Amino acid sequence: MLNSTKILQLFPSAILLFWAMWFSLVSISDFTNLLQKFQIISEDFIFTSKNYDLISQSLLTYKIISQKLTIILFSIIVIWAVTIAGSFWVALLGPKALKLNMAYFSFLASLCMSGSFMLWDEIFLQYNFEHSLMIRFGFQILTFMLFLMLNNKIKI
User: Fold this and answer.
1) CA distances from 35 to 7, 21, 28, 58, 78 (A)
2) Angle formed by the axes of helices 96-123 and 4-37, nearest 10°
3) Among the listed residues 76, 79, 74, 81, the one whose alpha carbon sits nearest the alpha carbon of residue 37
4) Are 22 and 49 in contact (CB under 8 A)?
């Protein structure tokens, strides 16, 4: 039987598992969206983010019409998401010596991504998404703080 101390010891891993899975799903859905734009898979493919079109539409705010720029920006986002997903998996499953530093890197990279999206939405006047990004950003900070507390890195 697990006591409350053992359960609390599982929480840091559960937090890492959640973010590893979440960013993996984000990476896959963004990657399939990129494959659709290169016409490698059908536009009818269901598991896709449709984020490519969001970038293209937001660029239109300032009359920027460039498929090349949209592909570059979206490719950077896909690579960033894959990097974050991979780093969360390493933080969860990797060698013990790497786990804590990879967790810090993962949280920092994911917070930077969410913060960048919030700034992008502000610059390109895309206010429809800002609220959900702020909620995710807050949830990321909350889970990072909980991760730190449960790893006894900060005291409350």
Assistant:
1) 41, 21, 10, 20, 11
2) 50
3) 74
4) no
- Our measurement of the distance from residue 5's CA atom to the centroid of its chain's CA atoms, rounded to an integer in Å, reads 30
Q: Are 129 and 66 in contact (CB under 8 A)?
A: no
Residues 92-128: pLDDT tens digits? 999 988 999 999 999 999 999 999 999 998 898 888 8
Question: Which two three-digit tokens encode residue 45?
Answer: 């493919």
Supply the mean pLDDT for the chain. Answer: 92
Which residue has tokens 């992008």? 120
> Cα separation of 104 and 122, whole Å?
27
Number of Cβ atoms within 10 Å of the Cβ of 55:
18
Distance between CA atoms of residues 31 and 88, nearest Å: 18
Parse the chain into domains and list their residue ranges.
Answer: 4-42+49-150
Match 């390493």 to its residue by tokens. 90
What pTM did the predictor assign? Answer: 0.91
Distance, CA of 129 to CA of 42 (rounded, Å): 26
